[in-house]
Design a protein that fits this description.
6-stranded antiparallel beta sheet, mainly beta, about 120 residues, Thrombin, subunit H, two-stranded antiparallel ribbon
Length: about 120
């Protein structure tokens, strides 16, 4: 891969707390075959650099529709987990309700890939 490519894929919402306005979940699984915008991909532990700055939570990858910001990011042997503080906007309120009622159960994730290895 000669230049960075954006891959999009789904993470899993594991909890939502409407009172604290927090949605959390696994944003990147490690060692599992996952479907991305580029096809099947396996992310290994250490393959993704966790950004120093807290990145935005976007609705449907749309940079014009931010609904929150990452407040905690942790890496474990099984993947990368994140907590997002959801803003007090109509879009943020809708996202919290949808997550708490399991209508929205995924986190749409995007990563820039600088290099990759085919297996």
């Amino acid at each position: 891969m000669d230049q960075a490519k954006l891959l999009t894929f789904s993470g899993t919402i594991e909890a939502s707390d409407s009172a604290r306005r927090v949605i959390s979940g696994k944003i990147v699984p490690f060692g599992e075959i996952g479907q991305t915008s580029a096809g099947a991909v396996v992310f290994e532990k250490g393959s993704i650099a966790i950004p120093n700055e807290r990145f935005k939570l976007l609705l449907e990858h749309d940079p014009k529709q931010p609904i929150g910001r990452a407040i905690n990011i942790q890496q474990s042997d099984s993947g990368i987990y994140a907590q997002f503080k959801v803003s007090e906007t109509s879009r943020g309120n809708d996202a919290l309700v949808e997550a708490s009622e399991s209508l929205r159960d995924g986190l749409s994730v995007g990563v820039l890939v600088d290099k990759s290895t085919e297996r």
